[in-house]
Amino acid sequence: MALSSSHPLAGTIAAWMWLLPVLPLLGFFINGALSILGSSHVGPSDPDMGHDDHDASPVASDQASHAHGGDSHAQAVPRFRALTAIIGPGVLILSFLLAASIFLAMRGVDMSAPFIQRYWSWMPVGDLKIDMAFQLDQLSMVMVLIITGIGALIHIFSVGYMSEDPGFARFFAYLNLFVFFMLMLVLGANYPILFVGWEGVGLCSYLLIGFWFTDEANASAGLKAFIVNRIGDVGVLIAMFLIFANLGTLDFTGVAAGAAGLPFGGALVTTICLFLFLGCTGKSAQLPLYVWLPDAMAGPTPVSALIHAATMVTAGVYLIVRSSFLFAMSPIASITVAVVGAVTALFAATIAMKQWDIKKVLAYSTISQLGYMFVGVGVGAYTAGIFHLATHAFFKALLFLGAGSVIHVMHAAYHHSGSHDDAQDMRNMGGMRKAMPITWIVMWIATLAISGIPPFAGFFSKDSILGSVYEHAGDSVLTNATWLGMSGHTVLLAVYVIGLAGAFLTAIYMTRLMLYTFHGPSRATADEQRHMHEAPWLMTGPLVVLGALSLAGGWLNLPSIMSFLGPVGGLDHWLEPVVGTATRTVTNGVALEASHSTEALLIGAAIVIAVLGIAVAVLALKPASLVPKAQSPAEHGFEKVLANKYYVDEAYDDAIVRPVYGLSKNVFWRGLDAGIIDNLFVNGSAALARGLGWIGARIQTGSTGVYAWAIVVGAIVVLSAFSFR
Asked: DSSP assignment, residue 655?
């Protein structure tokens, strides 16, 4: 192991950063072994036993395709559950404590360069030298704290949520492996290591989305996520090839140094950035590769929380900030990122307006909020993008886990009543604030945070992004660029307006979710209502912690106009060594700072938009008049279009999936593989051999007379041949 011995962090607890991913990896191996050991005994000896029983594990069945559950077999309590419940969250808590200790060590030193630890030479091939190395800097530290902190809370929640699931140990093995790859992604010191984590989280999302793989819909959802992400990953690979071919290295520090020598706004750096962004659209569910994320709701709800709140879907935002030294050199690519982010934010928000599945609303909300993050990093406000990534992790994890608690309660009520209604459809809920007062309060905190109401966390981060867009539209290298024939100034102003429109819709659809779930009369039966109560503290406790973070998370980076609330620009100062140069490149070397009057105007506009959205939802929506799903009328007009998500999945099926499937089936399989290769070459050569053998068998009769005649005929043929010469 080679240490960067001259670095201020050398000799501190930061030298143990390799343990951060190793701990969850250890959890994966142990829980995986427990899963294998326990699987041979879990379940009834008679495979048919229990099939007629109703779901004994309400939380193991939150797929809409199976009424209120799909895993409806009565199961024995999984073996090693207690041991798994300790190891699964335990390794994450240890990892978080280590991360917090390293963070404190970083705060105690003057750190202008990253702390890099090289462990071994991974790919020494010709000029290509790739080390197995980790890089610790201010950006990776923020990501590590989010992954381990939020991840630990989700693991604790999962102990209660998945406690009756027969795949308990397997679930935690996958969950631990997921976190391991997330940490590899953010700690890698070069693009290949980052790519290992990038692919690893894709693999784990496939495993966890399709966790209940006996249901075809779940398995298909996992497969869809895996395939769509691979499309984007091709872009990352091509970008890496271009970087190495032109800069001769794939280390972040080496690429950052080499990028300064590239022509500003040149074709090469723009091409590299656009290919990197192609990968981001897949991983972070942006147009046009967002379609896998809503289907990912097929997995257990804690998986949804981990995918949406930690570093799975935000990996694209991280990649752009990590590559900010490249994106800052390409105004065209940066504006493209901002435009795609803005359009995605608005597009997903409109779909969320008419979804009834509580998890689907949150899924489209994530796609929309990721759009805001891309708007931030697209205009060169890299800190604002990471700021929203952090606050989004707080309130989105809270929203998903809160939705999980609601689904948990609905399942339990339906289990007692024997109902097979959809436990995730908001039309079947209503009035749940009485049964779940804690969940109701913390989910309102998260709703106000994502809607942009002060002083909740989302207000500060979203305002930071929108304010940055407005400022960069006035003075930055982006304003002088031309994008599809339009000036950068015009495009950025359009992005700002779209951002405000998306914020307005966000406030509406999130208020709609809360009204239909928690307010108005309950749409459950009286018998079901008697069995509705708050989830156990093992599940409610993490919600309370996340509620506190959603409330106070904005203090991480207060704007100057709110200096009376505390230290200003904390995250700006923290990330300055990582993104400061790139940020100033976009702003022509000066620090953009709006006047207090302009800043107050922007903040006021954002608040008015959010309040107006909530007011519109409260006035227009009538939870008391909503009827259960089974009695609801069909959607008509544009509402039907929104409910069917603009038919994008159907369009992809008709334009891409079916033609490719038909081409593969009829041309490549039946025509080329079965027709030419199998029938003509393989079976044809076999038939020819059989025919020759048959002829030979007919000739070899054993009759001396036949042989004599054959010799005579042969002799005549040979002599004739010589005679004709």
From this structure: I
CA distance 419 to 437: 24
Structure-token pair, residue 107: 């705060």
Distance separating alpha carbons of residues 541 and 383, to the nearest angstrom: 30
What is the C-alpha to C-alpha distance for residues 322 and 341, in angstroms, rounded to an integer?
18
Burial class (CB in 10 A: 0-12, 13-18, 19+), 719: exposed
Mutual angle of helices 537-552 and 457-474, in 10-degree steps: 40
- Write the pLDDT tens digit of every residue in 366-384: 999 999 999 999 999 999 9
**Integer Cα distance of 457 and 548 in angstroms:** 10
Residue with tokens 């400061």: 580
What's the token pair of residue 20?
């951060």
- Nearest Cα neighbor of 434 from 526, 529, 527 is 529
Give dist(CA 587, CA 579) in Å, integer: 12
Name the residue among 62, 56, 51, 52 with its Cα closest to residue 78: 56
Average pLDDT, the chain: 90
Short-list 42, 312, 13, CA closest to 186:
312
Q: Which helix (H) or strand (E) holds 136?
A: strand 128-136
Q: How far apart are CA 345 and CA 504, in angstroms?
A: 11
Quickly list H helices, 676-703. Answer: 684-699
CA gap 234, 542 in Å, rounded: 37
Instruction: Answer for the pair 449, 394: CB distance below 8 angstroms, yes or no.
Output: yes
Nearest to 90 by CA among 42, 131, 31, 46: 31
Q: How far apart are CA 23 and CA 28, in angstroms?
A: 9
- CA 644 from chain centre, in angstroms, equals 22
**Unique residue bearing structure tokens 């290295």:** 249
Token pair 């109902």 is at which residue? 419
Q: Tell me which H or E stretch contains 120.
A: strand 115-125
Q: Average of pLDDT values for 407-413?
A: 92
Torsion angle, CA of 532/534/536/541, rounded to 10 degrees? 160
CA distance 349 to 505: 6
Residues 6+ apart with CB under 8 A from 450: 365, 369, 392, 395, 396, 399, 458, 506, 510
Look up residue 592 and give its DSSP letter.
-
> pLDDT tens digit string along 169-179?
999 999 999 99
